[in-house]
Amino acid sequence: MIFNSLQFILFFFAFFLILFAIPQKFRKGWLLLASCYFYMVFKPVYLLILVAVIVIDYAAGIKIEKSKTNKRRWLIVSLVSNIGILVFYKYFNFLNGNISGLLGCFHMENPIPALDIILPIGLSFHTFQAMSYTIEVYRGKQAAEKNFLTYSMYVLYFPQLVAGPIERPQRLLPQLHNPVYFNYENIIFGLFRIAAGFFKKVVIADRLALFVDPVFDHIGSSNGLSVLLATVFFAFEIYCDFSGYTDIAIGISRMMGINLVENFRNPYLSSSIREFWSRWHISLSGWFRDYVYIPLGGNKTSNARWMLNILIVFFLSGLWHGASWGFVIWGLLHGMLLIIERPLQNRFKFPHAFKVLIVFICVCFAWIFFRAREVQDGFAAIKLLGKISPLDKLPDAFNRNELIFVFVLIAGLLLTETFIKRTAFKKQAVIISLTILLFLLSYLFGEFNFKQFIYFQF
Amino acid sequence: MKIVLKIISFTLGCFFILLMAIASNSKWMGRCEKYFPNPYRYGDLYLLSSMPGFRTNDDVAFVSPPRAKNNNITLTIIGDSYVEGFVPENFSAGEYRFIPWGEIPHKIQPLDGSKRNILILESTERNVRWRFISQDILSIGTNAPQEEESGSNVKLAAEDNLQFMLTHLEWQLPFKEAKTKIYLDYFGKFSTMVDKPDDSGRLYLNETVDTASGSSSFARINDDEINRIVGWLNTECATLQAMGFDEVYVSFIPNSSSLYKKTSFPYNRLIERIEDNPQAQFKTIDVYKTFKTKKESLYQINDSHWNGSGKEIWWAKVDSLLNKQ
Asked: Is A310:A334 a contact under the CB 8 Å cutoff?
């Protein structure tokens, strides 16, 4: 069930109308039931995987807390279960395909066939969130959750189940213990956030996709100018797609009085790659920082080891996004850019706007490998960028008016997010009017092709 | 007051769940269809495009006078949506069978040799080039892919069903038209299924106009292809006669674009070239030439189908055929 479908809209209304109509003691149960249904719409049987992981992590959490000597063993049980499921569903065919390729070099055949498996939706998100719980319990920073339903909710909570933000137990679990009350202000602000996310998704992201998809899906018949524009557009497409989803998730949660972590802070205005990663997919960056980078030694180590740590983290981050070399290259490119920028930052003083521009160009360059269907396509796109000509013909996805409209949307997005704070509007009447306007504009200018959110596939 | 609000809220929530349940079940959906507004009420082309200015119902009622039944005649029509709406009462044949294209092997029934068995093969012009060319007529439909009841299909069907239920309400149509106008005027975009409106005051199915489409009235067709179609029809009509049909007729319903659309490309005259082909050994029920002579509109302006007047011309020809001794 995608957020921009009629099924979801109906589900949303049914869920909230019943939630606030039933007695308080049943509300948590209703939320859990709705979350299970939401997940089962994708593939009912996959709920069993989620339930299995929940049971293992719930038990592991309690055992870790109680045990004096076997803490580490229970942590390993939890991590192996989570990573095992992730590797099996997400990386088995990728690893197997690479082994086949390797054996092929020696004229040998891989006896293990590829498996016909469908990736459970949002697997990377909920396994990371589940692992975060057991690690925090192991570190003694979080008490083990004794209430099985509350823990189930921590993993299954539908607004952020399939594409985050990846929450920490310290933040989400206490909120799940709180009773769910009807609060008029929460409803208004929640709906406003949903409207903003919806607008970003259907008006900006899905419109940009109309230009980006034909260019990157047929790179052989594209030209330099098209690739350049498609790359810039993709940068905003993925931003609006993912941050739009996050806005909707945050908005739905707000309606129930639950505050989810912010995942984006205007990332394209970053003046360094380091800053970019503190503004882009913040919950994932934080996860890798706390559970991979710092345990590896972080930056409190030799320069060479620090560089290796960065490359490991970004290699894993790339792989987390998808089982393909394109994502790995994307991750490693970011790692290398981080390594390169550290000495340069202290040596040269550039104007802020120049740094923002350079970072944006670097980020866009890396997006090419993220978006290209194959690694070769990514290199072909870069080759085309070297042959840009002002005479290059653009794909006919947009006429001149729509092209201008797209630039206005992008500029409007950047200006709005830079100069208008989310808390700027205090008056409820203004919020309500803006919400209605955003929904109306989303309808009039939105592309309703039921394109799935990009990050659902991760 | 609070409790009343809660009851209303709960009831409404349950109603939405009920809608979701209905949308997910094809049987329930079938039963409930009549409770929702008919999306085709302003024509199929308006439904596809929401084109402003075409939200009208200009259909002419088709009323056939009561017919005395001739029990000696069995009329079978293999046809499409143009003739789908005819009922046994419209014809003087004692028995009337309608078989949609694609269901021939399942629906064709044994013939009673003591009766006059008449068969009409009806097809709209836009389907002629792919329908009448390769497959043996009695096997049409046997290779049709079976609808899988897989999870993803159910999900897609559920979304379609919800669209059917919730997105064709009268108050929504002005919003849809406003969106179409914005897209058409500023972005030069509109439904790809419909041709851009011209000054003829009609909507046309894009595939019947776009010369890149094989269904287009303006796509070039060489004589070899016409001969192949004629050859196919000769063979198949002979097969059907050998099965026991006493008379087999072929009838092509023209695209509305063949009659009304003015383009820089000439009409390919597909119907005439088949019907007048010297090699043709089958009988036809021609309406194209008759339609050309008529001044009144024979097609709805917002639908790819004919209106009651067009239907009546075809019906009158069939009726006279049935009454012919």
From this structure: no
Q: Is A24 on the interface with B (CB under 8 A)?
A: no
Hey, are the CB atoms on A398 and B187 less than 8 Å from each other?
A: yes
**pTM of this structure:** 0.86
Q: From the CA of A26, how many Å to the nearest CA of chain B?
A: 13
Residues in chain B within 8 Å Cβ distance of A399: 187-189
Q: Which of A154, A125, A157 is nearest to A142 (CA)?
A: A154
The number of angstroms, rounded, from the C-alpha of A158 to the middle of its chain's C-alpha atoms is 15
Give the ipTM of the model, two decimals please.
0.82
Per-residue pLDDT of chain B (325 residues; tens, 9 = 90+): 788 999 999 999 999 999 999 998 888 888 888 888 888 999 999 999 999 989 988 888 888 777 788 889 999 999 999 998 888 888 888 889 898 887 776 667 777 888 889 999 999 999 988 888 766 776 665 554 444 444 555 556 888 888 888 888 999 999 999 999 999 999 988 888 999 888 888 999 999 999 999 899 999 999 999 999 999 899 889 988 888 889 999 999 999 999 998 888 999 999 999 999 999 999 999 999 999 999 899 999 999 999 999 999 999 899 888 887 6
Residues from chain A contacting residue B167 (CB–CB below 8 Å): 6
A26 to chain B, any CB pair closer than 8 A? The answer is no
The Cα B212–Cα B200 span in angstroms is 22
Whether the Cβ atoms of residue B179 and residue A444 lie closer than 8 Å to each other: yes
Please state, in angstroms and rounded to a whole number, the distance separating the CA atoms of residues A54 and B262: 66
Give the separation between CA B156 and CA B23, rounded to whole angstroms.
Answer: 10
Q: Are A132 and A82 in contact (CB under 8 A)?
A: no
Q: Which helix (H) or strand (E) holds B251?
A: strand B247-253
Chain B hits for A10, CB-CB cut-off 8 Å, are 16, 19-20, 162, 166
Nearest residue in chain A measured CA to CA from B157: A7
